[in-house]
Design brief:
It is built from four helices and five strands; from the N terminus they run αβαβααβββ. With 124 residues, the protein is an alpha+beta fold.
């Protein structure tokens, strides 16, 4: 069984934050490196899942291209970081259209004991 999440919609995320609701979406990748996360321990945290502080993405925006027609996974997290302070990130091993794995993001206002922080590589 494969999991399919909707694509990111900033307005839906903002509405979930405003109403203290839940909103899940795909980051469109199964690779933590696509999020700007290069350190093995940080990548393992994303594979394991948890509630992540979005500050590292807000501080390290993706490089924009004139030919860029859509948001990258890193761009989605950068944009979402201006709406929400945290997201639950999780690698879904059988997620995505091909069932080969996909990182999902969920906004949920519930607090958990651990807020995970990862290092996001700056764009050169």
């Amino acid at each position: 069984m494969t999991y399919q999440f909707p694509t990111y919609d900033r307005q839906q995320l903002a509405e979930a934050v405003r109403l203290k609701g839940t909103y899940s979406f795909t980051l469109g990748t199964g690779e933590a490196e696509d999020l700007g996360v290069k350190l093995p321990d940080d990548q393992a945290q994303i594979r394991d899942g948890g509630r992540f502080d979005l500050t590292p993405w807000r501080k390290n925006p993706p490089r924009r291209s004139l030919l860029d027609s859509g948001l990258t996974a890193r761009g989605i997290l950068h944009d979402a970081s201006h709406v929400a302070g945290h997201l639950f990130l999780q690698l879904e091993p059988s997620g995505g259209p091909a069932g080969t794995g996909e990182i999902s993001a969920t906004y949920n206002p519930l607090e958990t004991p651990t807020l995970r922080v990862v290092h996001v590589e700056p764009v050169n």
